[in-house]
Specification:
- This protein has about 160 residues and is an alpha+beta fold.
- It has one domain (about 15-150): Sufe protein. Chain: A (Alpha-Beta Complex), CATH 3.90.1010.
- The chain is about 45% helix and about 15% strand.
- The protein has helices spanning about 1-20, 30-40, 85-100, 105-110, 115-120, 130-150; strands spanning about 50-60, 65-70, 75-85.
- Strands 1-2-3 form a three-stranded antiparallel β-sheet, with helices on one face.
- A hairpin with a 2-residue loop joins strand 2 (about 65-70) and strand 3.
- Helix 2 (about 30-40) packs across helix 3 (about 85-100), helix 3 crosses helix 6 and helix 5 crosses helix 6.
Length: about 160
């Protein structure tokens, strides 16, 4: 069995190497920045006293993400996320939180998945959809914050329930 595996690898490796060398198409591998954000994701966790919250999923792959935001005077002062997702989803979500943290609500609403991919230095083309998770959750949490805010009178503004 061991020999079979060895022979298989020996037979397959040159063809794979040739294909790699000749390949002129889109990026196929995670770069160092993406790997860094996947292995050491920023702003991971939960938030008990959040001002906005979102749970979203990608039906095409079954990945899910939860994201919480804390808002003070229109600024995203804190963001936390938890993801049940692929490396691309985790890395792009991490970068989305880094880009959004400290920004105003209106600036954060303009953040796109292209901004996230650019900040990461690119991600494999077939993983581009993963970047929608972080940005989508961020925007959904902002919508949740805005809905809560719209329904709260100025007198009870500090009483946001998470
Ligand atoms: S494969 Fe599902 S988000 Fe990446």
């Amino acid at each position: 069995m061991k020999n079979d595996m060895h022979d298989w690898k020996k037979a397959y490796a040159p063809a794979a190497q040739q294909e790699f060398e000749e390949h002129q198409g889109p990026v196929l591998f995670y770069n160092e920045t993406v790997i860094d954000h996947f292995t050491n994701p920023r702003n991971v966790g939960e938030m008990a006293d959040a001002d906005g919250y979102a749970l979203i999923g990608d039906p095409s792959c079954g990945d899910q993400m939860k994201l919480w935001i804390k808002v003070e005077q229109g600024i995203l002062v804190d963001i936390k996320f938890k993801s049940f997702g692929c490396p691309g989803a985790i890395a792009t979500s991490s970068m989305a939180t880094v880009l959004a943290k400290g920004k105003s609500i209106s600036e954060a609403k303009k953040l796109t998945d292209d901004d996230v991919i650019r900040a990461l230095g690119g991600i494999p083309e077939n993983k581009a959809h993963c970047s929608l998770m972080g940005v989508g959750a961020l925007h959904a949490a902002i919508r949740d914050y805005e809905q809560r805010h719209a329904n709260v009178s100025p007198e009870s503004d500090s009483e946001h329930a998470p």
